Every structure is written in structure tokens, then in C-alpha cells.
Amino acid sequence: MREQEIKGKVKKAKGKVKEAVGILSGNKKMEREGSAQRAAGAVQEGLGKARTEVGKALKKIGDAISG
Hints:
By secondary structure, the protein is mostly helical.
């Protein structure tokens, strides 16, 4: 697992907690911030996964070329 995937997962988890605290406390601002943080973490995690897949594909191409 790449660094961006891990950072994304952590950010997503923090956002879920913040969103839940906002819901439970009735703090709409905190709830929105948590939701946004969770979404940003999901994007970051997805980019990390895509990067990993591109790296694997490039390695396969390199291996096929070299032989």
C-alpha cells in the first residue's frame, strides 16, 4: 500500500469521526467539515490506488520490452 492510500484512509477516518461528533452534538459546521474531510480522504486514497496501478502497468510494459 502506498503512502497516499494510507494518508487518504487516515483522513477519511478522521472525517468520519468529526462528522459523527458534529451530528451528535448538533454542530452543523463540524458535521460539514467532517463530511468534506472524509470526501477528500476518499479522493486521496483513490489517487494513491490509481498511482499504484499505473506503476504496475508500467512495470509490466518494461518487463515485456526487456524481455
